[in-house]
Design goal:
By secondary structure, the chain is mainly alpha-helical. The chain has two domains: 89 residues, Rna Polymerase Sigma Factor, Chain: A, CATH 1.10.1740; 66 residues, Winged helix-like DNA-binding domain superfamily/Winged helix DNA-binding domain (Arc Repressor Mutant, subunit A), CATH 1.10.10.10. Strand 1 and strand 2 form a beta hairpin. Helix 1 packs across helix 3 and helix 5 crosses helix 7. The longest helix is centred in the N-terminal third of the chain and has 23 residues. 11% of the residues are buried.
């Protein structure tokens, strides 16, 4: 098989490898990286491919082994070896476990801010929040639909201002 034929075959099979890469990584960017690594390894090792055998299976094997190798490197990078007598292995990762107390505090602040709204804004806002459509709110409150939209907009604006401390800075 010539280099051109091999390259053409790799290109044709790349689309069938994408779902497998997604299954392994569960992330689009990581899947694209894995696809690229697989294709580079396959192309640089084309002399190891035996013509007449299943190229697709060979590519799947390269992808699986590349994924495993990358995963093992990632785990090793986050593992410290304790050199004391006990020889503990400690995985240090960027994963943080929180107990939810901050979420509860935020929700308390949100409810408090909603309670501070004037009833004229709070009622349509809460109805919309609970799933009512604009026209249903308008019928129930016997006000025009434009007024409903305006009051919900004003309520959101006031809540946004009141809860400014929760704005994420990127």
């Amino acid at each position: 098989m010539t280099t051109l034929e091999f390259s053409y075959s790799l290109n044709n099979l790349s689309s069938s490898l994408k779902p497998f890469a997604m299954k392994l990584t569960r992330d689009l960017d990581d899947a694209n990286d894995l696809m690229q690594d697989t294709m580079v390894k396959a192309f640089t090792n084309r002399d190891k491919f035996t013509e007449g055998t299943n190229l697709k299976a060979w590519l799947y094997t390269i992808m699986k082994n590349t994924f495993i190798t990358n995963y093992q490197k990632m785990v090793r990078r986050g593992t410290f070896v304790d050199t004391t007598d006990n020889l503990h292995y400690i995985n240090s990762s960027d994963i943080k476990i929180e107990n939810g107390v901050f979420g509860n505090l935020a929700m308390d602040d949100i409810y408090e801010s909603i309670d501070k709204l004037d009833d004229v804004f709070k009622t349509p806002f809460l109805m919309h929040y609970r799933g009512f459509k604009y026209h249903e709110i308008a019928e129930k409150l016997q006000i025009p639909i434009g007024t409903v939209k305006n009051r919900i907009h004003i309520a959101r604006k006031q809540l946004k201002e009141d809860l400014m401390v929760y704005k994420h800075k990127n």
